[in-house]
Design brief:
By secondary structure, the chain is α/β, with parallel strands linked by helices. The chain has 16 helices and 12 strands. It has helices spanning about 10-20, 65-85, 105-120, 120-130, 135-145, 155-170, 200-205, 215-225, 250-255, 260-270, 295-305, 310-315, 345-380, 405-410, 420-435, 440-445, and strands at about 30, 55-65, 85-90, 90-95, 100-105, 185-190, 195-200, 210, 235, 280-285, 320-330, 390-395.
Length: about 450
């Protein structure tokens, strides 16, 4: 979700600075020799369907955008999953250990990446390292720092350096490969072609690049880089391993896409990376532009492969008995101030309202696609003697009880600085909304467990 900083003046000031001189993106991705995924690459082939203990359950999380608001809400969900006990592996285990994959965008990517790197240790310091820190204040001060005005590397590099030093400490995707943890899929938007891009080896193969040495901070910055306020994160599209053209899986997907407009749009975007002479560099910005819920990467991952059954077969995984997707949606629905007066809205308010309308409509469409897809995937993987049960769980502010509390959450801004009260209530909301969701309660019962405190 696009951030709204405290004043339109800051946006105008940033525009004036941007007009002063040209800047160039810093390229940090390295080439690879061929398109074969290495055994140690950060890819879908490393996805451990079935979690750590219960091989019959596949649990996927999707963290939306929304600045620190999204990070805190998703953190609350992780806490609730940690404290939910289930019967698995011959004993009592945690629901959190059944999470196979976390797909994230923008603000949600900070929580996903930090948990992906640190596992349970994230519960010791994530609030101090990120949630309770004035990230936005630091970013704004960097905009006004005269020493940064004429740097050729652009404003975004200041954010990257800050995240590298204060949050991720130089970690790369090789560091993300915890054998006991879920696969983390950080998503951004390809500014040039308007398609979603996942920081995973399969996508880096399209760039003829190796993701293992790529800094996590740069991926998270790309996922949350608000256009105009921040320059895109730039990667090099290498050509030394593309002499044979598109890989077979993409050719097959393009053939299947002829009768599917959704799949056609996806494959057209992926195929664009093979236009060598026109796409030497790729520019990534806020993932919320192409998918603010983090759900599209899950949908595309399965559909491009050829469906749920083909995906499981390709990665040598048995179909689960339970397919669970939990969507953590931090989108708000604030009351427009313009409706209280006949005064004409300002530029900032107008742009924000137009953005919100488009965002909410796209979110609704994405949720409907995912709900229908999960049911279809479960049916495709089911056998007469082994049925797959789908569970689609939406964690969202509109379900908060009592409803009188909803305006408080709708008024929380999309920024990178929140008060302790806002953080506390967001974390609690994430826990309560998940624990009280009827589908989640059914899942807990089916796994012979009990909810969190």
């Amino acid at each position: 979700m696009i951030l709204r900083f405290s004043s339109l003046f800051i946006i105008v000031f940033a525009l004036l600075l941007a007009a002063g001189c040209s800047s160039y993106g810093v390229v940090k991705n390295v080439p690879k020799d061929n398109t074969t995924i290495a055994p140690d690459s950060y890819s879908y082939s490393e996805l451990s369907i079935g979690g750590t203990f219960d091989t019959d359950t596949s649990l996927i999380l999707a963290f939306s955008g929304g600045g620190t608001r999204a990070a805190a809400l998703s953190y609350g969900v992780l806490l609730e999953l940690r404290d939910t006990k289930i019967s698995a592996g011959g004993g009592i285990q945690r629901m959190l250990d059944e999470v196979d994959l976390i797909s994230s965008v923008s603000g949600g990517s900070f929580t996903a990446a930090y948990y992906g790197l640190h596992g349970d240790d994230a519960f010791n310091d994530f609030e101090e390292v990120f949630l309770r820190r004035d990230i936005e204040g630091h970013l704004i001060r960097s905009l006004f720092n005269p020493f940064n005005w004429f740097k050729r590397s652009g404003r975004t590099e200041n954010a990257v350096k800050y995240y590298e030093k204060e949050i991720f400490h130089g970690a790369t995707f090789a560091d993300m490969q915890r054998k006991d943890g879920p696969l983390i899929v950080i998503n951004a938007s390809d500014l040039g072609h308007g398609v979603r891009f996942s920081f995973i080896q399969e996508y880096f193969n399209l760039l003829c690049s190796d993701i293992s040495t790529y800094p996590v901070a740069r991926a998270v910055t790309a996922s949350s880089a608000v256009p105009i306020l921040f320059n895109p994160i730039v990667v090099r599209n290498y050509t030394n391993c593309k002499s044979e053209g598109e890989p077979q899986w993409l050719t097959d997907a393009m053939e299947r896409a002829k009768g599917d407009p959704q799949l056609l749009l996806i494959t057209h975007g992926l195929d664009s990376y093979f236009i060598r002479k026109d796409r030497e560099y790729v520019h990534f910005v806020d993932g919320g532009i192409t998918d603010n819920l983090g759900l599209r990467s899950i949908y595309e991952m399965v559909e491009v492969t050829g469906g749920a059954k083909v995906f499981m077969d390709k990665h040598h995984r048995a179909s689960p008995r339970r397919l669970v997707v939990i969507s953590v949606n931090a989108s708000t629905d604030p009351t427009p101030e313009m409706d209280a007066s006949n005064k004409q809205p300002g530029i900032g308010e107008t742009i924000g309202s137009v953005t919100d309308v488009q965002l909410h409509r796209y979110n609704v469409a994405t949720q409907e696609i995912m709900k229908n897809s999960i049911e279809r995937w479960a049916e495709d993987m089911s056998k007469p003697d082994r049925q797959v049960t789908p569970y689609y769980i939406q964690v969202q502010f509109r379900d908060i009880t009592p409803p009188s509390l909803i305006p408080f959450f709708n008024a929380i801004p999309t920024s990178f600085t929140l008060s302790d009260e806002q953080n506390d209530k967001l974390i609690k909301a994430g826990r309560d909304l998940l624990r009280n969701h009827p589908v989640y309660q059914q899942l807990v019962r089916d796994l012979g467990g009990n909810g969190g405190p």
